[in-house]
Write a structure and sequence with these properties.
By secondary structure, this protein is mainly alpha-helical. The protein has three domains: 62 residues; 337 residues, no CATH class; 30 residues, no CATH class. The chain is built from 22 helices and six strands. The strands form three sheets. It has a two-stranded antiparallel ribbon. Strands 3-4 form a two-stranded antiparallel sheet. β1 and β2 form a beta hairpin. The longest helix has 30 residues. The protein is flat and about 80 Å long.
Length: 477
């Protein structure tokens, strides 16, 4: 501000030449001389502020190009209409509001049909689809960053982004393969070595990518490169971690995969329908089209849907049994004795409700009670994943993540709520459902040395004998 004081005092009574020079500096019209002292002082203040900001930037050794790299990037253009030509012709006579209704409705039915098909094809296909969705979501988010900043020609940005995706997937899914395909991994020598040193290999791969990033740093783009480095890692945290949890939910039983996903889909559809016909009150500024009527209507519809879907699926072993790998057939099996969670039980109805429905008890599966928690989260908290995505898109002034699905946007536009739901389901299972897994303990026991196995056997036998359980078991035999 010393510079400011000096210039202001020097220009307290400005000359015509000095004012014209200021106008030239500020890019204004210098055809007319400036005679107003106030005008000169104001113009000088603006010029000094500009000079000081440039001086502060150069303190760190930045150049003019560095200042450009720190400037906010130009917004992306909005998504174009990618509706199939067949639908455009068939719906040409409708208003844009009803045209959008029919386009979304038809393609929603198509996606639901595809969802049924992949469920029918089994767990392995579901896992492959989850991986494909993860890769596509990552691609859509990274592409937004690349399109915004591609003019800066950041070296190795896309290459390093995909390399880090490979590293993180190797780390997460290597652990999953070791847990659920333990016998197969131990049987094959290369897989056994990869499993044994899995974490070290994962860390080494990441270090290679880290060093590549450091070597790719360019002086004029330091800040922007670190910004995109963080962009990539946050994207990995959101996309890869959540898809990894989806796979874990699937192994707990297909019902833990299908019901949560279906509840989110149901809530999305019903909230749209209630909002379309009855929506009047805006819900949140991030999504102006969302209404309280749609939000509340979607909640009640989703809870009812979750109860009905859970009742139907709880009666089939293929849905309720954990997904396990059969070493004899080299395939996945979903056959087991259903737990108490999937056996009908009689529950007393609260007295307040008894007078309304005329019943005192009701038979239902315990899982249906858990489905209420799942559907409630899908309806009340799940949409905040969509609001988060809306805020992200508004920050870059785009309508959708991509144009993959006409009327719906990109794959990420359909899965913004699903990822949040997957995390909740995984935490819910770990907190309230999952117990010790004897099969995994046996697998770990078989990998021990003979002397270690004998020690555990003697300890377990003494423990059971002290409890009197070993004698009873012998008499039964």
């Amino acid at each position: 501000m010393v510079i400011s004081s000096w210039l202001l005092s020097d220009l307290a009574v400005p000359s015509t030449y000095g004012c014209q020079k200021l106008r030239m500096e500020l890019g204004g019209d210098n055809s007319q001389p400036v005679h107003s002292v106030k005008t000169a002082v104001a113009a000088t203040t603006v010029l000094v502020t500009k000079m000081e900001s440039e001086t502060e930037a150069k303190v760190d050794g930045e150049t003019a190009s560095d200042s450009e790299s720190r400037a906010e990037a130009a917004p992306l253009s909005a998504s174009t209409d990618d509706t199939p030509e067949v639908l455009n012709r068939a719906l040409s006579n409708l208003s844009s509001r009803w045209k959008n209704w029919w386009v979304r409705g038809i393609l929603t039915l198509a996606m639901i049909a595809f969802f049924f098909i992949i469920i029918y094809l089994g767990p392995m296909v579901l896992m492959i689809i989850v991986m494909c969705v993860q890769i596509k979501c990552f691609h859509e988010i990274i592409t937004i960053g690349y399109n915004v900043y591609h003019s800066y020609d950041l070296p190795w940005f896309r290459t390093l982004s995909w390399y880090f995706l490979l590293c993180v997937n190797y780390f997460f899914y290597g652990e999953t393969v070791t847990d659920y395909f333990f016998t197969l991994v131990q049987r094959e020598e290369p897989l056994r070595i990869l499993s044994k040193y899995h974490r070290f290999i994962s860390f080494t791969l990441y270090l290679i990518g880290f060093c590549m990033f450091v070597l790719s740093l360019v002086k004029k783009h330091y800040r922007l490169q670190f910004y995109m480095f963080g962009w990539t890692h946050v994207t990995l945290l959101i996309v890869v971690t959540q898809s990894h949890l989806v796979i874990h939910n699937l192994f707990e039983g297909m019902i833990w995969f299908i019901v949560p996903i279906s509840c989110v889909i149901c809530n999305d559809i019903m909230a749209y329908m209630f909002g379309f016909f009855f929506g009047r009150t805006p819900l949140i500024k991030l999504s102006p089209k969302k209404t309280w009527e749609g939000f509340i209507g979607g909640f009640f519809a989703t809870v009812v849907f979750g109860l009905l879907l859970s009742y139907v699926m709880s009666g089939y072993r293929c849905f309720v049994c954990p997904v396990e790998y059969n070493n004899d057939t080299n395939s996945f099996t979903v056959d087991c004795e259903p737990s108490d969670l999937f056996r009908l039980q009689e529950y007393n109805i609260p007295e307040v409700i008894q007078s309304v429905i005329g019943l005192t008890t009701v038979w239902m599966y315990p899982f249906q009670i858990h489905s209420i928690a799942l559907s409630t989260f899908a309806s009340l908290i799940g949409p905040f994943g969509g609001f988060f995505a809306s805020g992200f898109k508004r920050a870059f002034k785009i309508k959708d993540f991509a144009n993959t699905i006409p009327g719906h946007g990109g794959i990420m536009d359909r899965f913004d709520c699903q990822y949040l739901m997957a995390t909740f389901v995984n935490v819910y299972i770990a907190s309230f459902i999952r117990g010790p897994n004897p099969s995994k303990l046996i697998q770990q026991f078989l990998t021990l040395r003979p002397d270690q196995q004998l020690h555990i056997f003697n300890t377990l036998r003494s423990h059971l004998a002290d409890k009197g359980m070993l004698t009873v078991a012998t008499e039964d035999e």
